[in-house]
UniProtKB/TrEMBL annotation:
InterPro entries: GH (IPR017853), GH13_cat_dom (IPR006047), GlgX_Isoamylase_N_E_set (IPR044505), Glyco_hydro_13_N (IPR004193), Glyco_hydro_b (IPR013780), Glycogen_debranch_GlgX (IPR011837), Ig-like_fold (IPR013783), Ig_E-set (IPR014756)
Family named by the database record: Belongs to the glycosyl hydrolase 13 family.
Disordered: annotated segments: 467-496
Gene: glgX
Name recorded for this polypeptide: Glycogen debranching protein GlgX
Entry keyword annotation includes Hydrolase: yes
Organism expressing this protein natively: [Kitasatospora] papulosa
Length: 706
């Protein structure tokens, strides 16, 4: 204990490293140490305790590279795939030196066997050590005593999804040698943009050590997003500016500290559902060679892998050693690396017991009782690709969820594709139909219109069809369900009317997202009009297609969009009625009889049940700031201004009659997305009961004055 490689000084004063590896069914384990010239020294681990092979090696310190060779039977027909010719990465490695290039030697079977249907049964005895990265011993006694975590409450959170490399790669104010790295993200120029926007947390696309898929390498491409993990404790070495023999650990921590100092939390997108070893025809990099049957879900035919992820394999989370690997990794990133939460890729795959998704599964039960993990932010991507995998709204308390029903409803409303307005009503007010159970709150819903997977926001209003030809898969990859509208022309155009319409739609979508109840999530660059040229699956585009183009801020139009985003976020931060901690009751909350939430038609009348079942392009949403549930920091009542939001998705202007008393005597116009120039607040006063002309495709936000 603990698993992995840990430097220490023994009771006899001798310094060295203790190595410990779980390998349940193995017959023998060799520790392989590598010097600076790459010369390998093999040391058998002779101590075996509770299926853990371990030993203390004097004189081995920080920076030493190592790996394992695990001996056992080669019997793929029973799921046994041990092959000691393959050097294996320590699952608990805290740093990795080198990159995976996947030549034939790194496969446990003969990759190029003529009969591919049985290739996985033919053992390859070539040594893989010269061709694979090595784990690195890391010595770090940092206790984080001076770090101050922001600890932003969920209801006050605004998430900004970004890619460490892509966010900083083209930033002109970051030194070239730091661009695309953890140090680049820690640079004042990068953090300054985040602070000006007003986001409270960055959600980093995967930073666990990952490998590139063979089919991408053959096409000269690389896995850019990083959803192909192989080292759950190691910061991805490719994002380090300072070095890869342990320096990446310190650099990552410095990045976290810099973000914390700016009041910004760090959330990691983590991929514990599968690994980079893929299916039975995949490479042998780590877990497959340590204990294939102990780590992976196998089918009834043990040669084959159960695949609930679409990536070839699924980790067998029911197994205690797998559950321990995941929870040890999570605790490590919280306690030793300083992160504040996690977004779990394909979380439904982790919640499967034997086959079905089970909200009482071991994984969810362990998280719920863990004294460290239950205190951090936990976000589920609440689906996988297996039967019964779609679980939006089903995760237990403590968890928040990516709400794709919010995404779909908002996209459909603004493109005029909703059959009625029931769904959009729920989505704008926290999705109580999904989350108002078990003590869950509106912030259980992470609202988003776009994510890394799919169109950027600009592409959503510029393309209706995907354009993924650059991925080399014949445009077959990526979803066809884009729910997009291009404004009358596919792709970029010089038509000024189309471009003006697209920018207005961008303002509408961003404003809707940031005013909705729940936790908003922005994607890096959407606030400045980033485009991927219609590619809705840019997972393999490590180039200008995916990197954030900071020169967009030199265009006044895109700069105004950024300023609007910051302005709406500032409004959200100032007004608790826009970030409620409890669901709306729809009943009077004050002696004057005003309800906390009311809906209005364009005629200024309250919506009836029939109105909810009818098509409509115009909605009025009244949010009362009186007697908001909860208490302030001093225990006093929470009160705020009241607001009326008008969402008008039709292309024609309409006259919206503002609700008069008791709702309001007068309204002050705060936001108007029909205006190109958003640098100043409109500030115009409008009496209640009068008709206000709303331009086509516009969001208005009015504050109750007086």
């Amino acid at each position: 204990m603990p698993l992995g490689a840990r430097f220490r000084v023994g009771p006899d004063g001798v310094a060295g490293t203790n190595f410990a590896l779980w390998a349940g069914g193995a017959e023998a384990v060799e520790l392989c140490l590598f010097d600076e010239r790459g010369t390998e020294t093999r040391l058998p681990l002779t101590e075996l305790t509770h299926e853990i092979w371990h030993g203390f090696v004097p004189g081995v310190g920080a920076g030493r590279r190592y790996g394992y060779r695990v001996h056992g039977r080669w019997d793929p027909w029973t799921g046994a795939r041990w092959n000691a010719a393959k050097l294996l990465l320590d699952p608990y490695a805290r740093a990795v030196d080198g990159s995976f290039t996947l030549p034939p030697e790194v496969y446990g079977h003969v990759r190029d066997w003529p009969e591919q249907h049985v290739a996985d049964t033919v053992r390859d005895d070539r040594d893989s050590a010269p061709h694979v990265p090595k784990a690195v011993v890391v010595h770090d006694d940092d206790d984080w005593a001076e770090d101050r975590r922001p600890k932003t409450p969920w209801a006050d959170s605004v998430i900004y999804e970004l890619h460490v490399r892509g966010f900083t790669k083209l930033h002109p104010d970051i030194p070239p040698e730091l661009r695309g790295t953890y140090a680049g993200l820690a640079h004042p120029a990068a953090i300054g943009h985040l602070r000006r926007l007003g986001v409270t947390a960055v959600e980093l696309l995967p930073v666990h050590q990952f490998a590139h898929e063979d089919h991408l390498l053959r096409r000269g491409l690389h896995n850019y997003w990083g959803y192909n993990s192989i080292g759950y404790f190691a910061p991805h070495a490719g994002y380090a500016a300072s070095g890869t023999t342990g320096q990446q650990v310190g650099e990552f921590k410095q990045m976290v500290r810099a973000l914390h100092d700016a009041g910004i939390e760090v959330i990691l997108d983590v991929v514990y559902n599968h690994t980079a070893e893929a299916g039975e025809l995949g490479p042998m990099l780590s877990l497959r060679g340590i204990d294939n049957r102990g780590y992976y879900r196998l089918q009834q035919d043990p040669r084959r892998y159960a695949d609930y992820t679409g990536c070839g394999n699924t980790l067998h989370v029911v197994q205690p050693q797998v559950l321990r690997l995941i929870t040890d990794s999570l605790r490590y990133w919280v306690t030793e690396m300083g992160v504040d939460g996690f977004r779990f890729d394909l979380a439904a795959a982790l919640a499967r017991s034997m086959h079905d998704v089970d909200m009482l599964s071991p994984f969810l039960a362990v998280i719920a009782q863990d004294p460290v993990l239950r205190r951090v932010k936990l976000i589920a991507e609440p689906w996988d690709v297996g039967n019964g995998g779609y679980q939006v709204g089903a995760f237990p308390p403590l968890w928040t969820e990516w709400n794709d029903r919010y995404r779909d409803a908002v996209r459909d409303f603004w493109r005029g594709a909703l059959p009625d307005v029931r769904d959009i009503g729920y989505r704008l007010t926290g999705s109580s139909d999904l989350y108002a159970w078990g003590g869950r709150r509106p912030y259980a819903s992470v609202n988003f219109v776009t994510a890394h997977d799919g169109f950027t926001l600009r592409d959503l209003v510029s393309y209706e069809q995907k354009h993924n030809e650059a991925n080399g898969e014949g445009n077959r990859d990526g979803t066809d369900d884009n729910r997009a509208w291009n404004g009358g022309a596919e792709g970029e155009t010089d038509d000024p009317d189309v471009n003006a319409l697209r920018r207005r739609q961008l303002r509408n979508l961003l404003t809707t997202l940031l005013l909705s109840t729940g936790v908003p999530m922005l994607v890096a660059g959407d606030e400045m009009g980033r485009t991927q040229g219609g590619n809705n699956n840019a997972y393999c585009q490590d180039n200008e297609v995916s990197w954030l183009d900071w020169s967009l801020l030199e265009d006044p139009g895109w700069r105004e969009l950024t300023e609007l985003t910051a302005r709406v976020l500032a409004l959200r931060h100032r007004h608790p009625v826009l970030r409620r901690r409890a669901f709306f009751a729809g009943t009077p909350q004050a002696p004057d009889g005003l309800r906390d939430l009311a809906w209005f038609t364009a005629q200024g009348t309250e919506m009836t049940e029939g109105d909810w079942y009818a098509p409509a392009a115009t909605l009025g949403l009244y949010l009362s700031g009186r007697d908001i549930p909860g208490r302030d920091a001093r225990g006093g009542p929470v009160t705020d201004d009241s607001f009326l939001a008008v969402l008008h998705a039709d292309h024609r202007p309409c006259d919206f009659r503002l609700p008069g008393p008791p709702w309001a005597q007068t309204y002050e116009l705060v936001l108007d997305t029909s205006r190109e120039d958003q640098s100043t607040e409109p500030g115009t006063l409008h009496p209640g009961g009068t008709a206000l002309t709303v331009e086509g495709r516009t969001v208005l936000l009015l504050r109750v004055a007086g």
